[in-house]
Every structure is written in structure tokens, then in C-alpha cells.
Input
Amino acid sequence: MKTLRIVGLLVIALALSGLAIPDQTKDAPKDIPDFDVQGISMTECQCTAYACPCRSNGHPDHGSCDAADFTYIKHGHYGKVDMSGFKAVVIGDLIDRDASKVQGTVYFDKSSTPAQREAFDEMLAFMFGWNPPHLIGSKVVLIDFQESPDKNTYTLTIPDILEEKGVMKRDSDGKPLHVVPAMDLWGNKITYLDNVVFKYHDKGVGEWDLSGHQANVKEFHTTKEMYAQKKLLMQHGDMSGTWTAEQKEMIKQMGMKPESWTGVVS
Output
């Protein structure tokens, strides 16, 4: 039963990384160990390339969103548990106007330990314990994630199930293009990628080829204190389709412009 609880929380936490938390449920439990984690996350979905409305306080282009949300904790801890090396991917209809339809399958990397999973369970309960999960299932698999030395190309593979490739565009000075403020589980900005490949096939679970649609990547350094102080854009959203006043002020403090999902400054 504990495994199902862990998986359920992971589904919701990652699936709702672009969704707002209702005002009455923004407060998360405070009685957990301190956590400090660093890593990288990559998301590919069926939304329009370079213009994901879910990241800008809106709903998916199609009402629902078939997506794969990958998280790799490179370094960090949760209490006394070393979280280094933890990897997981959530795949399914991860964001939907009808929250009852949100569902996904969780793929844990086979290298993850029971202690890491339990720690991640508690960490995500702290972030998203207010929302019940809709779980199809979970699998322990080999997850191969590669980041090129120049940090331009990102690939993610689960043999015979998932194939992803994203490529980052840079300007003449080598700076990443398409860095935007965003509602996300791990931080407040993402970098859009060219979605070169996004193919998924798991018999009896789901199948699609959404190559060419939305893809983004973000490096993160996320702590319990950030959540406690409500420093994340996602903690101030209402899914109205435009940034809230609080979010606009936060984006201004970040030195960025509050672009809408259409690319227009709001």
C-alpha cells in the first residue's frame, strides 16, 4: 500500500507542476524534514511548441494534455536520506480542465532505493498533499537520460516504451534562447526546446507520436524553505489564462517579462 501511495503522490506532484493551487489549499504541512535538492527536469507534451499555456496560468491547448514529465535529482537530501541519482518519469493525461480525468503511469528508474522513494513520497506530500491521485499504475524500468556536454541536446529513453529528444537554441553569444517565466513544480522559469522526438508506446497503457510539439527543460535547486515562503509562481496561480498580480510582481523581481502563452507581454 505504501508503494501505491508513493506512486500516487508522484503522479499528482509532477502532473500538476503547471497547475494552480486553490487559495484555500495552498498551505502545505510543515512537519517534515528539511529538504534541499538539485537537478534537472524535462517535459514534453502535446501543447503548441514554444507556447505552453499551462506554464502561464492557463489550461492546455486541447483541454487535456498527453505528456511525459521527467525528474532527475542529481544531488541533495531529504532529512537524512541522500536523494542523489533519483529518476522518475510520469506519462499520461497530466493536466486537464477536468481534474477528475488526470491520470498517469509512473516509471521509476531501477536504481532508486526504497529509502529514496519513501523520502520522495513525503517531500511531495508536503508540496501536493491536498490533491487526490488518479493512478493507472507504476513500473520499475531502466531510464536513460543524457545531457550533451554543451547542454544543447537532451535525450530520454525507456527501452521499448519512451523516446525523447530535445534541442536547445542559443544566440550568437551562446546564451539560451526562449527562457521564460513559468509555473513549475521545481522553480520559476523554463527553457523551451525544439521537440525533435516524442514517441510513447506501452501496450495496454498508451501510445502516441507527439514529435514537434512542446518541450522544455529546467535546472532546479528547490528547497523546503522556498515552499514555506511561497516563492513559487505556481503557488499564486488561478488558471485564469493570464498572470495574476502577485505573479506579475514576482516575474518583475526576477528581471523578466510576464509573457502570456501566446507570447504577448501581459
About this structure: Residues 114-128 form the longest helix (15 residues). DSSP finds four helices and 14 strands in the chain. The longest strand covers residues 64-78. Residues 1-29, 262-266 have pLDDT under 50 and may be disordered.
